[in-house]
Amino acid sequence: MSHTKQAEICQMFDRIAPTYDMVNRILSWGQDHRWRKALALKLPAKRELRVLDIATGTADVLLALHEERGDSCLWGIDLSASMLALGQEKIKVRGLSQINLQVADACALPFAHNNFDVVTIAFGIRNISNIAQAFAEIKRVLKPQGQVHILEFSLPRNKVIKYCYLAYFRYWLPLVGGFLSGEREAYKYLNRTVESFPEPQIFSGLLAQAGFSNITITPLSYGIATLYSAGIA
User: What pTM was estimated for this model as a whole?
Assistant: First the structure.
């Protein structure tokens, strides 16, 4: 993905930021909350974790992580300043000084080596310009024995569910998402990137090639979403 394309994607998210959370709840039928909960439950038992959430958007993942592990220090980065502004408002309302947000690129993380116990990404890996570079950066900032947990849309394996899901994704989702947000092309983009994203076994292979180990694949909601977990030595 070129830098120009990455900038266009960032601008798209800036435009849909005001309606992003509402549209997510509606189009996922409320499942997005369950998916973030599943991600939060993957956190290790260690106290006072340092966690980085990449492509954090409006900070919903960070809030879910805080709800599960309130003793953790949490950081979130995203390229969309508008999305982060909404996330910052949520954090301010809740008085959560242990959650920190900043504009940054997943391919050039502004953090020191061996800084975090866990790195998370929810529905953002598809939008990263260079996945291999992002994986290298994640490994760099993770402490020894660190973990990465990646939540992403996927295609169900059951043929009937897959047929219904694709019909919903290709036609209903752009229509409703476009109507609610005024940005139909953004939700056409979502469909295209989900359908072109590597299958779970292939994506787990990319994690292995990047040097991650102990990789697990957890289908959620009949495979509509998949949670990938891995560690480093």
Answer: 0.94
